[in-house]
């Protein structure tokens, strides 16, 4: 697996003041995938953007999918950086 596939980018809207949301999601991903990720970047944007990318692939776009729950983004990232890995209690259904 190349390092670019293990790089996550969260692009967030500065006009909307979504930095805290992006930083919180970044913390969740870094805590969950501390051994799998090589880099996590926060990228300021405008115009209501909130997009999560793994490498060059968009795995979550707020405009299409709404704001993500952390578990949904963790699943999308996991499927690309650590396929087959369980997410433990956060993945279980009630």
Question: Quick gist of this model?
Answer:
The chain is built from 3 helices and 4 strands. The chain is an alpha+beta fold and 94 residues long.
Task: Give the helices and strands, then pairings.
Elements: E1 7-13, H1 19-32, E2 39-45, E3 50-54, E4 57-61, H2 62-65, H3 70-81
Parallel strand pairs: 1-2
Antiparallel strand pairs: 1-3, 3-4
Class per helix and strand makeup: alpha+beta
Strand order of the largest sheet: 2-1-3-4
Radius of gyration, whole Å: 13 Å
Q: What is the arithmetic mean of pLDDT?
A: 91
Count the E strands. Answer: 4
How many helix segments? Answer: 3
| Secondary-structure element series | EHEEEHH
* Main beta sheet strand tally, sense and closure: 4 strands, mixed
Helix fraction, binned, reads 25-40%
Strand content: 25-35%
Gross geometry = globular
Q: What distance lies between the first and last C-alpha atoms, to the nearest angstrom?
A: 34 Å
How would you describe the overall organization of this protein?
The chain contains 3 helices and 4 strands. It is an alpha+beta fold. The mean pLDDT is 91. Strands 2-1-3-4 form a 4-stranded mixed β-sheet.
List keywords for this structure.
94 residues, alpha+beta, 4-stranded mixed beta sheet, 32% helix, globular
């Amino acid at each position: 697996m190349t390092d670019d596939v293990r790089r996550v980018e969260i692009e967030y809207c500065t006009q909307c003041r979504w930095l805290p949301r992006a930083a919180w999601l970044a913390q969740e991903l870094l805590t969950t995938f501390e051994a799998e990720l090589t880099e996590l970047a926060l990228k300021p944007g405008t115009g209501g953007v909130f997009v999560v990318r793994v490498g060059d692939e968009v795995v979550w776009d707020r405009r299409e999918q709404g704001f993500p729950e952390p578990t949904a983004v963790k699943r999308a990232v996991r499927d690309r950086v650590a396929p087959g890995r369980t997410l433990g209690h956060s993945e279980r259904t009630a």
